[in-house]
Specification:
- The protein has helices at residues 138-150, 165-174, and strands at residues 12-25, 28-37, 40-48, 51-60, 63-69, 84-90, 93-99, 104-107, 110-113, 116-117, 122-126, 155-159.
- With 176 residues, the protein is mainly β.
């Protein structure tokens, strides 16, 4: 697909300017960093479906960080890929990003997600979609992740080119 971004040149959120990072899992806490052009008020709302579970506002600078505690949030893992929606409002610009709350670590005891050992069962895939070619197709990416998940895989690595946003989204949604 091709995307055309349209926004107020003087006041907007940069393209791909919202980054969400897990700060802790007990209690769940995240940091939302937002890169903006211009000045104004920045509001971050965390949604679980239609339910607002956290909201915070702040005056925006070029890069603004907002930390939020999400007391009753469920953690993301490969068996239960719980996702939330982060709604970022800056002046008239609104961006939505899905995210999961997870803490990844590894040491001599192995690879862990949220403190629990996870055996990585990985596959290497090509960046393209076979006969469809080197395109990013949401349906094809989701289908491929579903098939690999059904075959017992829980991790993917892409060859040659970075993964498309639709493949990364499918991995988050399906627990890959």
């Amino acid at each position: 697909p091709v995307y055309l971004y349209s926004f107020d040149i003087a006041n907007h959120i940069e393209v791909n300017g919202v980054k969400i990072k897990t700060l802790g899992i007990n209690p769940p806490e995240i940091e939302v960093k937002v890169k903006t052009i211009g000045t104004g008020s920045l509001t971050v709302t965390i949604l679980d479906g239609d339910k607002k579970i956290a909201i915070k506002s702040k005056k925006a600078t070029d890069e603004t960080a907002i930390a939020l505690k999400l007391e009753d949030a469920k953690l993301w893992d490969v068996d239960n890929p719980k996702l939330y929606t982060c709604k970022v409002e800056f002046n008239k610009d609104i961006v939505y990003e899905k995210f999961g709350i997870r803490q990844v670590s590894w040491n001599d005891e192995g690879f862990k997600i949220n403190g629990k050992n996870v055996l990585i069962k990985g596959a290497c895939i090509h960046h393209d979609n076979g006969p469809l070619g080197a395109i990013s197709d949401e349906f094809a990416d989701r289908r491929r992740v579903k098939i690999l998940k059904g075959a017992g895989y829980n991790a993917l690595r892409s060859a040659h080119n970075p993964c498309s946003k639709s493949l990364l989204n499918a991995c988050d949604e399906l627990g890959m």
